[in-house]
Amino acid sequence: MAAPDGPLTHLQARSGTYVLLLHLPAPASIQVGRLGTFDFPSGFYLYVGSAHGPGGLVGRIARHLRHPKPLRWHVDFLRAHARPVAIWWSEGAERKECAWAGALARLPGADLPAPGFGASDCRCPAHLIHFSVRPDRKRFARAIDEPVKEVRLDK
Questions:
Q1: What are the extents of the domains in the chain?
Q2: Total Cβ atoms within 10 A of residue 17
Q3: Which end of the chain has the smaller Cβ count within 10 Å, N or C?
């Protein structure tokens, strides 16, 4: 799949790890499939995922940006209420989503409002991290000691 026009022109159909930054303008109680109902405070939500299948990063992230869509993954339930504001990513075959989620959870101001969110196939506390203010990508990149690219969707 070729990179599409618009905000995803910088992404490729390659494997990688990504963070979808969402903004929830007001608190909401949201049913997240069979995981349960959670109270989500307003603020910024960082959902960490990986893309190693067909379409790679561009395919996976394009699906997250589509709205409306069938609610299949945990993030789809939050996405129905929250607006995407940025994507952070790094290409590569190595699966880094658990390490990235852990690094985000250790940043100042991090909170895990929905235990198990996005972590059905691992032992992580969650792959969704909440911040009341927008976190800094460069600080995150220093925390994981690798470059992380960004495309802003809220220009």
A1: 6-152
A2: 26
A3: C
